[in-house]
Predict the structure.
Amino acid sequence: MTVLKEVAVHLPSQRVAVRSLQEELHLTDVQLKVYERFYGLSHILREPEGTVYDLLMAAAGELGTLHGLERRIRYVIQARTLPVATPYPTSAVQEVTRSLGLHRAQAFVVFHHACASGLLAVDIAGRLLERDGDPDALALVLTGEKTFTIAAKMVPDVAVNGEGAAAILVAPAGGRDQVLSYATRTHGRFSEGLTLSGEKLAEFGEMYPKALAEVMGEAADRAGLALTDIDLILPHNVNRVSWVRLCKLIGFPLDRVFLDNIPVTGHCFCADPFLNLRSACSRGRLKPGDTYLMAAVGLGATFSAMILKH
């Protein structure tokens, strides 16, 4: 059974008010009010200096159990939203792997599910470790990206993006957070992502909560649970209103969705569910034996859910 042996996060040093980004993001006064009052966005986190490599190294550096386990790391997987993050031939994941001394590890990137690629990477890591059959082997999943273009800084009329990062040690057994199920579905007719317009954009907005509810229900079924059995949902931090709509649709209590980070971190690409896991644990929102659901949606449009037992 795939487990999360340890989850560490790096929160950038600069806290930026969304209001101060109005000119940079080309927001009208009306759009800004919608982001702040309707979507519940207040601040995002940015790292004013450094690169993607620095973000990933900072997150990996927070892993308390990594030192001494380097020879057990078989895979290093960078989960990414953006297909291109560094100029060729630079590879952040290869550089991090070398810097950490993970000489026995195979390193690669997955970005096929956009912002849902973090959950995909955990699933791939678990499958690879299970296939290898070595109970001592480990995988390292890395998430975190720079918002270096306008397209990376925001999802229009949806979210403002931040630069938080996470590092996850995945093991085939023996950890505290056990993966009970994983479900994902891509609705390819919305593959245009940010360039959707007209009727298709309206259709996507209409089906969004239904599609996410569907994949969450599928994950619950695979875990032998009902959604009402879930103690806490750890969402992707795009905005508050999307989760209000979803909870009304499925009859799930909004107070069992961890929304605390949305106003203070912004949407941190593939890192959101893991940032929320660390925050929820530190605030006593999860206790041993609780089941929780990580959810993420990637442009394209991929809807994913993973259920774990704490």
